[in-house]
Amino acid sequence: MGQFGKFLRELREDRKMTLRDVEEKIHISNAYLSQVESGQRSIPTMRILSKLAECYGCKVETLTNAAEAELRHSKSTLDEPPAPGAEFICRGYENLNEGNKQALKKFLQHLQREEKEKK
Predict the structure, then answer these.
(1) What CA–CA distance (Å, rounded) separates 22 from 16?
(2) Are residues 49 and 24 part of one domain?
(3) Is residue 81 in some structural domain?
(4) 9, 19, 22, 27 from 66: Cα distances, Å
(5) How far apart are CA 89 and CA 76, in angstroms?
(6) What digits encode the pLDDT tens for the residues 48-79?
(7) What is the torsion angle, in degrees rounded to the nearest 10, for the CA atoms of residue 50, residue 55, residue 57 and residue 61?
């Protein structure tokens, strides 16, 4: 289990909540949350982290800081770590239809041109 998943489980258990309690309160699958807590799934999106923060009565920054620490740790164990936010972008890209994938590619190319022009 990753440190982030362990942290989430401890937050939930400290509040005497079951996975089903969380599911009912914020409409996130208890199976999904169980997989995140056990390290079988990667760090959730900001939307889900925001819902979890609300459910657990903590600041979203608490969760994002824990997620960032997990990413930094995993990053240090890789030969070529992904750029910050790369995992989030890749996960989002996988869920897009082909038209939106093309639109995202064009937007990325636009941003790259802007960056090049600034230099």
Answers:
(1) 11
(2) yes
(3) no
(4) 12, 20, 19, 22
(5) 20
(6) 999 999 999 999 999 999 998 888 876 655 44
(7) -20
Name the DSSP letter for residue 81.
P
Q: Do 9 and 37 touch, CB atoms closer than 8 A?
A: yes
pTM of the model: 0.61
CA torsion angle 29 7 59 89 (round to 10): -60
* 101 compared with 87, residue with greater pLDDT: 101
Q: Count how many Cα atoms sit within 13 Å of the Cα of residue 91 in the half-sphere of its side chain.
A: 11
Last residue of a domain, one of 43, 58, 76: 76
Same domain, 102 and 63: no
